[in-house]
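I wish you would study the pair of lines that follows with an eye to the fold:

===
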Amino acid sequence: MPPTYVLARDHLQRAATILQGTDQRSRQLRHIIERTIGLMEEVRSEPLTPASNVLELDDYRHRRQ
């Protein structure tokens, strides 16, 4: 998983934690952030299907680790 993905997810999780208010705006923002995190997890879990039979060397290295 790319470091930028991890960093973005961590920032969103921290933002959701900060928004613990009970007012309508805080709840809506928290819901949006939590849903965004969920969508990120769904995209991450989908298998990548190559568009061609060409394999990138970096992709190969990451899969071997």
Summary: Helices lie at 3-18, 24-45, 57-64. Residues 54 and 60 are 11 Å apart (CA to CA).
